[in-house]
Amino acid sequence: MLKIENLSFSYGKIQAIKNVSFELKKGEIMAIVGANGAGKSSLMKCIAGLLKPQNGTIYCGDTLLEPIPFKVVENKVVLVPEGRWIFPNLTVEENLMMGGYTVNDRSPGIQHAYRMFPRLEERKQQRAGTMSGGEQQMLAIARGLMANPKVLLLDEPSLGLAPLIVNDIMSIIQEINREGISVLLVEQNARKALGIAHHGCVLEQGVIVKTGTGAELAQDESIIAAYLGGTKKKEQ
Ligand SMILES: Nc1ncnc2c1ncn2[C@@H]1O[C@H](COP(=O)(O)OP(=O)(O)OP(=O)(O)O)[C@@H](O)[C@H]1O
Ligand SMILES: [Mg+2]
Description:
There is one protein chain. This protein has helices at 40-48, 69-74, 92-99, 107-116, 118-122, 133-145, 163-178, 190-196, 214-219, 221-227; strands spanning 2-11, 14-24, 29-33, 55-60, 63-64, 77-80, 151-155, 182-187, 199-204, 207-213. By secondary structure, the protein is α/β, with parallel strands linked by helices. The chain folds into 2 domains: 2-76 and 149-227, Rossmann fold, CATH 3.40.50; 87-148, no CATH class. Strand 1 and strand 2 (14-24) form a beta hairpin. The longest helix has 16 residues, at 163-178. The radius of gyration is 17 Å and the shape is globular. Bound molecules: adenosine-5'-triphosphate (ATP) and magnesium ion. Magnesium ion binds next to helix 1.
């Protein structure tokens, strides 16, 4: 569905992504885990066309994605960025409308968003900046869905959220995936991400150092030591 080959990106002298290749299969969730500064967001921005890689190719199906953001969205690859970037002064519904700017009739998308996130319907006239962190993350995801993605790129959806809300977000990601959308999920919360992912990669200093199924990676001793708190004990 999404095929990344030999992707490299540098900010001047800092090489954030080094020769990265992987494939997100259709209908799957793929997790990319890694420490702060590993290059996860840079990778997502390259896929979304916000950064122009110096090397490599990105295909969605048979289509070569040019690094131009609106063209990437037209090809149904949609980024929900780290930090959410909702429009704080617009209402919930206006934010959703903005997400569907490539779609002719946005009302089915709005209805779908409200079915998936009833809280957003209750608060559709509320200014988005006054919502809680968890609600804002749900809005950011719902806004991304408004563009009818085939591939949803989620950058740190659980960042800064309480554990119970993180579980809600992970369930929502699984529900979105069950509807047929392939998901690339970047997370520092490796345990949660690998728990719902079909496949995963570990990114270290811009390089993919390990790949496997979500279950394999979650059981891998070196990953447990580096990213899962150094113990096989399960979280709640
Ligand atoms: N605009 C920029 N200019 C220069 N260097 C940058 C810029 N953005 C990121 N970097 C550098 O690129 C590297 C990768 O950063 P990136 O944001 O992709 O990491 P990350 O894995 O998403 O980290 P985090 O988990 O903290 O979000 C880091 O060394 C960072 O300092
Ligand atoms: Mg990041």
